[in-house]
Amino acid sequence: MEYIESPKNDHIKQAKKLTTKKYQKQTGEYLLDGWHLVQEALASGQTPKRIYATEKFINERDLKPFYDQVTEISPEVAKSLSDTPTPQGIFAIMPLRAQKLPNKLSGQFLLLDGIQDPGNVGTLVRTADAAGVQTVVFGNGTADAFGPKVLRAMQGSQFHLNIVTAKLADVVKGLQAADIPVFGTELNPDAVPYQSVDAQTQFGLIVGNEGNGMQQALLEATDANLYIPIKGEAESLNVAIAAAVVMFHLVGA
Amino acid sequence: MEYIESPKNDHIKQAKKLTTKKYQKQTGEYLLDGWHLVQEALASGQTPKRIYATEKFINERDLKPFYDQVTEISPEVAKSLSDTPTPQGIFAIMPLRAQKLPNKLSGQFLLLDGIQDPGNVGTLVRTADAAGVQTVVFGNGTADAFGPKVLRAMQGSQFHLNIVTAKLADVVKGLQAADIPVFGTELNPDAVPYQSVDAQTQFGLIVGNEGNGMQQALLEATDANLYIPIKGEAESLNVAIAAAVVMFHLVGA
Q1: What is the pLDDT of residue B189?
Q2: Residue ranges matching CATH 3.40.1280.10 in chain A
Q3: Tens digit of pLDDT for each residue in B223-235?
Q4: Residue range(s) of every CATH 3.30.1330.30 domain in chain B
C-alpha cells in the first residue's frame, strides 16, 4: 500500500483543492472527510476514486474490500486535508454525479433560493431526506453542495436524494406544467398560514435567503406563499427550522 | 465619554471574562456582542451595566439615551472582546437575571437534556420563543445559556422567555403534579408518532443529547415518548429541527 507522509505531496495538494467548487467542476470529483460520510458513500454503492486513511483507520476499520483504492497517509497529511482541527483521519475522493432534472417531473421538491450559510444548506438537505423529499434544487446564490461544511451538515444525504443545480424560475414553470403545486415561504402575514394547506403527495417548496428571503419574481410565480405564524416574540425562525416545519406538514403523517 | 484604546485595559479584560460561565456566576453578568442583540436588550427594558462601542457605532446609532453607560473602544478592543473575526463593534454587559421556576407550574415548557452544541441550544431557545413556549429548562450537560455562540444563535430570545437551570427529573415531577403532560423524544419506532398526539395548551417537551438522546430515567418518567417517522434514508434529524417539528405540532394552529 502506498504511503504519503508529506502534506506537500502532489496528490494531497490535488485532493485538498477538491474542497473548492472550481476544482470540483474541473475534475468532476469532491472530497469527503470522516468515517460516517465515507461509510455512507460505500453503502451507496458508489466507488471512491481514492481513500486516504491514517494507519489507525486502516487497522481499526474493515477497509479490505477497498484495498486497491486505499492510500495510507500520515496524521500531518490528515490535518492538511481537513478543515476541522481534529480530523478523524479518513477521506475519500468521490465522483460528482452530474444530476439533471428529468423531463417529466414528479414527486416532492425542495428549492433553495440563495441560501448562503453552508450549515443551513446541509441541514436543509438532510431534513428533506428525512421527510422523504426526493429532489433538492440548488438555485442561484446557494452555497456549493460539495464544500466541506455543507457535506458535514448534510450527513451523507447526497447519496439518498437527487441534488440538482438549476434556474429556479424554470423549475417552478416545469413543476406547474406538470400540475405540481409550488409553495413559496415568506415572513408576511399576507401569505397563507402553512397549516391551512393540506398534505400533498407532490409539491415544490421554495425557501429563501437568510436575510432577504425569496426573490420577488419567484414569490409572484408560486401557487401560494406560506408563513409560519410566530406566537412568541422571536422575529423569525432559522431558515432550516422553518423549512422543516413546513416540509413535515406538507408530507403529512 | 471615556475611551479605551488597549485590549489590555483591566475593564476590557474583565468584560472578556464574562463570556465564560465561571465569571458569569461570580459577577452575575454576561456579555452581548452585536447590534441586534444589544437592541433586543434595550428593547426589553433591561439596563446594560455598560455598553462598549466603537466610534463608528456611537456616531451611526442613537445611543444618546444610554450615554452614561457608553464607553468608546478602539477597533482593536472590539476584536479582542469578540469571538467572531469581524465584530460589529458594539458590546453590552448585561445582568444575569436569576430565574427560577414558579411554585405553580403552567404553560408550555421545553426541557433540554444534555444538548451540547451551542448553536443547537441557541436555535432551540429561538424556536421555542417563536412557537410561543414560555419556559426553557436547561438540564445537566446542556451548554451554558450565556456563552457567545449560544447568544448568537438565540438572537435575543433570552429577553422574551424564561430560561431556567434545573434538575429535569424534578421538573418532570412538578409538571405531572400540575397535570401537565410531559413528552419525551426518541428515535425509536416503539415510541408514538408525534402526529398521533393532539395540540396541547400545556405541555413539557424533552429533547436529548445529540449523540445519545435522552437519559433512560427521563424516558421512563414521561407520559409518552414521541418520534418523527423518517420517510427517506436519513438516519436522524438535527435535534433543533426535530424539536421544531414536534413543538409546532404541539402548540397547534
Answers
A1: 72
A2: 108-251
A3: 999 999 999 999 9
A4: 3-95
| Cβ count within 10 A of residue B246 | 25
> What local confidence, expressed as pLDDT, does residue A26 receive?
94
Per DSSP, the residues of A202-249 read SEEEEEEBTTTBS-HHHHHHSSEEEE----SS-S---HHHHHHHHHHH
* A232/B133 touch (CB, cutoff 8 Å), yes or no: yes
The pTM score is 0.93
pLDDT value at B103 more than 90: no
Q: How much is the pLDDT for B211?
A: 92
* Grid cell of B237 as nine digits: 434529524
Decide if A136 touches B, using CB distance below 8 A.
no
- Of the candidate CATH numbers 3.30.1330.30, 3.40.50.450, 3.40.190.10, 3.30.1330.80, the domain formed by A3-95 belongs to 3.30.1330.30
Of the residues B37, B136, B231, the best mutation for testing chain A's interface (the one with the most A CB atoms within 10 Å of its CB) is B231
B26-57 pLDDT, tens digit each = 999 999 999 999 999 999 989 899 999 999 88
Q: What is the CATH number of domain B108-251?
A: 3.40.1280.10
Most A CBs within 10 A among B152, B203, B248, hence the mutation to make, goes to: B248
Angstrom CA distances, B205 to A246, B111, B128, B144, B202, stand at 20, 6, 10, 20, 10
Interface of A with B in 187-226 (CB under 8 A): 193, 195
CB contact under 8 A, A157 and B228: no
